[in-house]
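Thread: sanity check for a docking pose with zinc ion

Original post by kr_44:
Hi all, I'm comparing my docking run against an independent structure prediction. Below are the sequence and the ligand SMILES. Could someone generate the full complex and paste the structure tokens? I mainly care about where the ligand ends up relative to the chain.
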Amino acid sequence: MGGCQSFIGSGDEASHTLTAENHGDINTLKLKNNNVQKAPCLQEKVYLQDHFLRERISDVDLFTLTALPHGLDQNEWLAFNAISFFKNINLISSALSEFCTSTSCPTAKGPGNRVYEWMDEHGKKLKCSAPLYTDYAMSYIQDLLTDENVFPTRAGVTFPNGFMFLVQKVFLLLFRTLSHLYSAHYRDAVAVDIHPHLNTLLTHFITFSHTFRLLEASETAPLDDIINALTH
Ligand SMILES: [Zn+2]
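Reply from moderator J.T.:
Ran it for you. Here is the predicted complex with zinc ion included:
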């Protein structure tokens, strides 16, 4: 069984991080309200700019959408949503995969220089590129979700002991996928106009994760700024 580790790296920020020197690239995309120079703190994280934060695909109440439906077993609800989030995050990740290569992203990172390492089945840590980490993560999740012993689909079959732990691991890996997309590929998401989907997906994902306590605060810390902006 594979695993995952993270730490704060000491090297340069991910190669796609916005800097004062490459604002020109952003301006050519679709900015209508160029106030970048007036807000220095936003220069580093394009996804915190107000006009991007407002872009969502739905105004539905995500707390209502997330709440456990009356009469439904909680494990069933967790399984259903784990599968749904996996499909949606995998879809967006795949849509941006042409921008995420071993050259553009030689290290799997999130914001704040958070480095993600994969742990192989022998417990050995592997420092790998972002696309390779994503491949490992998605394959691992796919194997779990299709394992009848972990995510049973037959009526009357109960969920295994430790199910919650495995669900938390699925959400951890999905969060890291989103974390890398925000850190390194938000400009790419803007370029192909899927950033409203990304914002909505992150908001729903975080609302669900908070409701069922699926992610540690220390894990989500690198995205706290945008999480707070999207959920408040
Ligand atoms: Zn990447």
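Residues 3-27+44-231 form a domain with the Butyryl-CoA Dehydrogenase, subunit A; domain 3 fold (CATH 1.20.140.30). Hope that helps with the comparison, let us know if your pose agrees.
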